[in-house]
Each structure stands twice: as structure tokens, then as C-alpha cells.
Amino acid sequence: MISSSKIDLAKLEADLATARALIREATKKVNQTKKSFLEDADYVPQGEVYKNAYAFHWSYLLMERVFRIFVYEEGEPPIFHNGPCKSIYSTEGMFLSFMETDIHFRTWDPDEAHVYFLPFSVVMMVKYLFDPIIRDKAVLQRTVVDYVQTISHKYPHWNRSLGADHFMLSCHDWGPRATWYVPQLYYNSIRVLCNANTSEHFNPKKDASFPEINLKTGQISSLTGGSPLSDRKTLAFFAGQRHGRIRQVLFHHWKEKDRDVKVYETLPKEISYEKMLRTSRFCLCPSGHEVASPRVVEAIYAECVPVLISQQYVPPFSDVLNWESFAVSVSVEEIPKLKEILLGISLVQYENLRRNVKLVQRHFVLNDPPKGYDVFHMILHSIWLRRLNVRISA
Predict the structure, then answer these.
(1) How many C-beta atoms lie closer than 10 Å to residue 197's C-beta?
(2) Run of H or E including 38
(3) What letter does residue 358 receive in the DSSP assignment?
């Protein structure tokens, strides 16, 4: 006799197989404009900001129809089921909060779930368990190993898939490190990370990159908006600490050396950081100690074209978004030629980049409660795509 859990898994896999086939067919229709199923009251993706707008729309609407997530209830706050909603790590806390209260994607029946969320916060582990004097990172190991052991003994789902349909999420620099201690979590599970660094074994086929958003006050309203082109007198702007090798190179060539490329380690008191974002044409986003930078989202919010200066970084939602249409990438070797590169972008090209920045804003905005196609839903869509890459046998 076939068990009910095997029947449930077979149905889930059949639904996912259908979704794969539909999305695969949609990818062949790059210039498709027909609606029918794709009529959407919220938003219809269009334009060059997407690698394939039609396929993305199919995938997104299929996700909304069928995707179900089980959140393990084990673990106590503040380490589990809780995270920071104010600080450079706020995306981690906001996602945890939204996932805990979600009524659309979350299911309380683990047998009908496509993926399983491990709701631990690396930020909160570091805050509450890490001793800054002893500096013993083994607290991460003990916490994560114990948690995975707990859920793998209580539920059949981890062992059934060897963790491949489970995901964790972290915006902390130590997010990847927290997964080292459980090989199946590290090699098999979906790791949703701000620190999406391929040189540190971030695997874009199974891991997902999500944006670092610095909510300085915890407020999510009135964060977007920029000045018209006529008021953008500064060619390029950056202000930040001397973190990491890339910024050392940037400061060496440009720190307070040019009237058009304004690079500061410490911003003068009379200059407003937010105003500079809104009145600059390009906003420099160099990696610090880690590849991710909150300046990418700050630039998008301010309708300032982001200039990514990084190595081995996988930008958020790059399965779907065509980053070349709204951002400029500059290699570390090209930093001495930064001004020349930016001045080489024609006014027509620049206006197109900035118009596209405004178009992609909706995918990086936090809403409470979440709204269709915002950053919460884009993170879920990234997880959905990676679950589609996995086939699980009963």
C-alpha cells in the first residue's frame, strides 16, 4: 500500500513538472504580447529590464497559484522566528516577519509544502550568542547543527530530500559560514544570501541572491524618489568606510580628488547623504568586506544609476532582471578610468538607464503588508525557481 505522504509528494512533483513545462515553453516567446492567462490586475512585466518578461510573468503567476511553504515552528525567539527590522540587516528581519504572518504562501501542513523554511536568524545568533571577547564562532555551529538535527528527527522531509527542498535566509556576513557546519545544508539546500559571492561557493543554480536594504530608522515609507536630470549636477558619488580591497583602490584614485566624481570616506557635515544620492547621475556601489552593498538599493530608490564595482558578485534577482539595462558594471581594474567610462555613456543611454532604474524600483521596495512583485515576492520567486530545479523521489 502506498503511503499518503508518497501520494502527496507525487502530486507536488507532478504540479512542478507542469510548471517547468509551461515556463520552458514561455521562454521561447521573448516578444510575446498575448494576454489571456497573463492578464494581471497588479502588474504586467514588460520591457528590457527583464531577460524575458513573458516567461517571468508566467513563472510568477504560477508561483502565486501553487507555491506553498512550510515554516518549522521549532525554536524560540529571539534566535528563531525573529530578526532585525532596523539596520543594514533589515531585509533578513523583514522577510522573517512577513513569512511568519503570511497567509497566502505559508501552509501549516508539511505534506503539501514545496519548500521548508529554517527560520533562524544569523544576525540574532551573533547578537545574543557571540561573545565579542572570546570570539568563538562555534556558537553558530552548535545552534545550526542542533536545529537541523531537531527537525530531521521530528519530520521526514529533511531526510527525504537530503535538505534540497529546504531553505535558509541571511543578510549577515556570516550567513554562508552558518551553513558550513551541516554539509547537506551547505551543498544541497537553497541558501538565500545577501553575501552572494561565487568565490565563497555561492552556487547560483541552487542558492539565491537577495538585496541588502539598510533601514536606518525602521521605517519603510517615503524611501523612493529622486531629482530630475536637470538637478543632477554631480556625475558620480560615494561615501563610506574603508572596508575591503576594492574600496582601498577606489579611495586611492578618487577620494576627494575630483569635482565630478565625489568620493568621501567621511562625508562633511554640511553635505546630506540622501540629497547627494538624489542629485547624482551615478551612484558608486563598491563592495566592502563582503560583495553586497546596501548602496545598490539606495541608488535604485533615489533613481540614481547604480555602478557596481565588485568581483564574483551575483546581483539579486538576476535570473529575471537584465541588470545591464539599469546599472553599470565597472571592474576593479577599470577604477582608474571610472570618470572616462561614465562620461562615455551618452545622454540618450543615460536617460534610458535611469528610466529603467525607476521601472525596477517596484521589485526592491518593502511593503507592509507585502504587495505583488515587491522585494518579498521577488525573494519568494527566486526560491520558487530553485525549487523547480530539484526533483525529489519518494
Answers:
(1) 20
(2) none
(3) H
| pLDDT-based confidence at residue 393 (cuts at 50, 70, 90) | confident
What value does the CA radius of gyration of the chain take, rounded to a whole number of Å? 22
Percentage, residues of the chain above pLDDT 90: 86
DSSP label at 72? P
To 10 degrees, what angle do helices 90-101 and 122-129 make?
Answer: 110
CA atoms 104, 107, 111, 117: torsion sign: positive
For residue 313, the Cα-to-chain-centroid distance in whole angstroms is: 12
Instruction: Give the containing element (helix H, strand E) for 146.
Output: helix 138-154
Q: Going by C-beta distance under 8 Å and a sequence separation of 6 or more, which residues neighbour residue 63?
A: 380, 381, 384
How do beta strands 280-286 and 234-239 pair?
parallel
Instruction: Kindly report the pTM of this predicted structure.
Output: 0.95
End-to-end CA distance of the chain: 14
**Cα dist from 9 to 85, 133, 157, 388, whole Å:** 35, 48, 10, 14
Number of Cβ atoms within 10 Å of the Cβ of 117: 22
The CA angle 299-120-211, to the nearest 5 degrees, is 10
Q: What is the DSSP letter of 92?
A: H
Which 3 state secondary structure label does DSSP give 142?
helix
Listed residue (3, 175, 172, 1) closest to 90, CA to CA: 172
| Grid coordinates belonging to 361 | 524600483
**Eight-state DSSP code of residue 206:** T
Distance CA 134, CA 358 (A): 46
φ/ψ bin of 343: left (φ > 0), alpha (ψ from -120 to 50), beta (otherwise) = alpha
Give CB contacts under 8 A, 24+ apart, made by 219-222: 220/94, 220/366, 220/367, 220/368
Helices (H) and strands (E) in the chain, counts: 14, 11
User: What would the mean pLDDT of 325-345 be, rounded to a whole number?
Assistant: 98
